[in-house]
């Protein structure tokens, strides 16, 4: 580990302590990675990539010391709930569409089978007669 890397890590840990103690020196002191990076004076991508372990440590400390769920996790949980609802609605709509398509196919088959031979002209032009496998 080089000197700059070690310096960043110590600044991040100090910033963690300040944020969790409710004594931020910049921003609003929210318990997010963005606020942690700003408080430590490092680019947030450095925190996300080079110091991912410290990011996870920060979130673990937020959970244990403040008994809060990190904001990122709360947003993701809400999004998961919203997406599960959308998926449920989509599946219900698909099932309804399949059911309607089956009903229409059966109705068309019944209409065609009820027609006496040679009277297919009574079936509207938009209906395509089904060929039976024996024909």
Shape: rod-shaped
Instruction: Quote the distance from N terminus to C terminus.
Output: 80 Å
- Approximately how much beta-strand content do the residues carry? under 5%
The radius of gyration is: 32 Å
Number of helices: 5
Overall mean pLDDT score? 83
Domains, number: 2
Q: Report low-confidence residues grouped into runs of 5 or more.
A: none
**Portion of residues in helices?**
55-70%
Describe, in short, the structure shown.
The chain is an all-alpha fold and 135 residues long. The protein folds into 2 domains: 3-68; 73-122.
Can you describe what's shown?
This is TetR family transcriptional regulator. It comes from Streptomyces hintoniae. The chain has helices at 3-21, 33-40, 44-49, 52-66, 71-114. With 135 residues, the protein is mainly α. It has 2 domains: 3-68; 73-122. It is rod-shaped.
